[in-house]
Amino acid sequence: MRIQLTLALSAACIPTSLAAQTAPTASTATAGPFVKTDAEAVVAKLATELEENFVFPDVAKNYASLLRAKLAAGAYARFADASAFADAVTADLQAVHPDKHLRLYAPRPEDSGRQPQRGGPPAGLNAISKSGWLAPGVAYVRFEGFPGNKTTLDAVRAFIADHANAKTLIIDARSHRGGGLAEMDLLFPHLFAKETVLVGMDTRVAVDERGGSPIIDERVRKIGGPAGVVRREHYVTPASPQSSLATAKIYLLVSKATGSAGEHLALALKRTGRATLIGETTRGMGHYGGTVPIAHGYRAFIPVGRTFDPDTNQGWEGTGVKPNVEVAAEKALDEALRLAGVNKSGDAALAQLR
Question: In total, how many domains does the chain have?
């Protein structure tokens, strides 16, 4: 299994050729029929894929044992449709060991007879939903995700150029669903005044050696690590020449819906002291991996690595990233503006965004 850390904004649109640090959700497509022989092949193949690739080998063995035991006992013989079967398998796996990315997906009827989609999300998709000046010197940008596509990357570059003299930057990640590193790698060099390690990333060694690095990024480098994993660190080198954003006050807005790469962003800015996080503890999706074909049109998102704080060796899987200032998500922008000395509500400031 060869994977690459890139983005899809939701699991329903992840091509089979992509991996992602993203937030899987159950498919909303019309459910296809359940076929017992197909299900048996899917469970057998999924058990092997997990055993060989899941981030924690001991947990992987437990997943595989559970699937094989239930298959032998006839537990996967009858379901209302393919989605019900996929959801049941996912629930069984989560009962063994919870992982918010791990999921089996049913075949999508709309894909019947089609070649699998290749490449990333649509080039025209812009994941910056709002940006501009909220007040003199106070810049604002809202990300729905990090797709790593041309439109979003061009929008990041334009935002940086247009707001390079901001004294305060508010990054809104309250609805951030996940993604890759490309947008961060454009933004971070303008926010840091010196080379800085952001987070650590451990990939299961068997996956790394068999398929190559799952993290294709020029700002991730290999370092020494414990047995069983290939350890890397995501780092930033300052832009040259530096913009005033390197000294700007930064507020990052987060919510309980902020997931995956949005949490990577949050941990990187929090642990380096570069931003004040405002809002709610994030969703708790700390393992990266890929969506891979299993059998008969079924797909699975299989986590193969974890991202963590190099200072504590702790990730955020299942726990989330805790904000510096805890407020309800809908009040986070109000609080950021208050801290920035702007006497406006968030709604009023957004209404006057320019």
Answer: 2
Do residues 81 and 36 make contact, with C-beta atoms less than 8 angstroms apart?
Answer: no
Using only the alpha carbons of the chain, give its radius of gyration: 21
- The amino acid occupying position 64 is A
pTM over 0.70: yes
- pLDDT digit string, tens, across residues 104-127: 999 987 665 554 444 445 667 899
Claim to verify: residue 155 and residue 193 sit in the same structural domain: yes
Q: Do 58 and 174 belong to one domain?
A: no
What confidence tens digit (pLDDT) does each residue in 244-260 have?
Answer: 899 999 999 999 999 99
Most distant CA atoms of the chain, gap in Å: 67
Are 213 and 73 members of one domain?
no
Q: What is the pLDDT of residue 126?
A: 95
Strands 196-204 vs 299-309: parallel, antiparallel or unpaired:
antiparallel
Q: Residue 339 domain-assigned?
A: yes
Q: Is 57 in the same domain as 161?
A: no
Pairing relation of β-strands 19-22 and 287-293? antiparallel
d(CA 92, CA 71): 12
**Domain containing residue 235:** 128-286+305-351
Q: Are 262 and 145 in contact (CB under 8 A)?
A: yes
> For residue 223, what pLDDT is reported?
95
Domain assignment of residue 343, yes or no = yes
Q: Clarify whether residues 227 and 268 are in a common domain.
A: yes
Helix axes 82-96, 36-53, angle to 10 degrees: 30
Q: Which two tokens mark 117?
A: 């989609």
Residues 185 and 334 in one domain: yes
Contact 117, 110 (CB under 8 A): no
CATH code (residue 333): 3.90.226.10
The predicted pLDDT at position 116 comes to 44
With CA atoms as reference, report the closest residue to 323 among 173, 168, 217, 144: 173
| H or E element, residue 156 | helix 150-162
Q: Is there a single domain that holds both residue 95 and residue 32?
A: yes
- Tell me the C-alpha distance between 176 and 192, whole Å: 22
Q: Is the pLDDT of residue 243 over 80?
A: yes
Helical spans, DSSP H, in the chain: 36-53, 57-72, 82-96, 150-162, 182-187, 205-211, 261-271, 332-339, 346-351
The token pair at 191 is 């926010």
